[in-house]
Amino acid sequence: MKKNGLIIAIDGPAAVGKSTLAKLIARELNFLYVDTGAIYRAITWKVLKNSININNENTISDLVSDTCITIERVNNNSLKNYNHIFIDGENVTEEIRDPKIDRNVSQIARLPKIRKQLIHLQRKLAEKGNIIMEGRDIGSVILPKADIKLYFTASEEERIKRRYTELIGKGYRVDYEEVKKQIVQRDEIDSKRKYAPLVKAKDAFVIDSTKKSIEDVKDEILKIIREYKKSRGKQIENNTI
Length: 241
Ligand code: CDP
Description:
- By secondary structure, the protein is α/β, with parallel strands linked by helices.
- Helix content is 50%, strand content 15%.
- It contains nine helices and eight strands.
- It has helices at residues 18-29, 36-49, 57-65, 99-109, 112-126, 138-142, 156-169, 176-192, 214-237, and strands at residues 7-11, 32-35, 69-73, 83-87, 90-91, 131-135, 148-153, 205-208.
- The strands form two sheets. Strands 2-6-1-7-8 form a five-stranded parallel beta sheet. A three-stranded antiparallel beta sheet has the order 3-4-5, covered by helices on one side.
- Helix 1 (18-29) crosses helix 9.
- Cytidine-5'-diphosphate is lined by residues 14-15, 19, 36-37, 40-41, 105-106, 109, 135-138, 186, 190.
């Protein structure tokens, strides 16, 4: 892949804090940020809107072929509203966070045909470099040559609490046990699917954010990036790159 800038891949389970940290780092470094989960969520939104059975791989695949997804950076500094995602020109940024999408997205994301169709779009978005892309299979399948790979973890309890608080904060009337069930179920489907499961790439750094502040995790990641840039500088000097 021809590129001019750094490529950072972040993977990890549901509600682990990938998006928050990826956005913070992208803002700090002035990088592009791509949340690939939003792409699967947008497809799910369209599938549900068209009342298509979530197990019908061929019909969903036709729908994906006939769909245009675009991501646009919003021109302000807020982390909440960082990118907007459009599907066939319709802005679905807010709607794709609805718990109804949580309940269905992993069923669709496990379908190999659909995942394969979305590879090109994801690689194209990363092509120019200076990008942070996050999801489940970024370091392993989408961008296996990424310069820096990070794999996020946090205890299940903490992840459930974070997502519950987030949804309540957005005004959704959700039940803690229901949020728990969805997260456990999604992780199970995402990590057990045959094609491109959630996995830590061999060369990924593990970032455990349990009981750490956002600032601490951010510093940990910026340190990894600094060290990488330093070592790459040396490789360039020694002509080994
Ligand atoms: O934000 P959260 O951690 O809840 O999930 P997300 O990143 O928005 O992803 C939603 C769902 O999309 C995941 O549970 C996966 O089923 C699917 N996904 C995937 O399969 N591969 C990706 N690269 C990104 C998301």
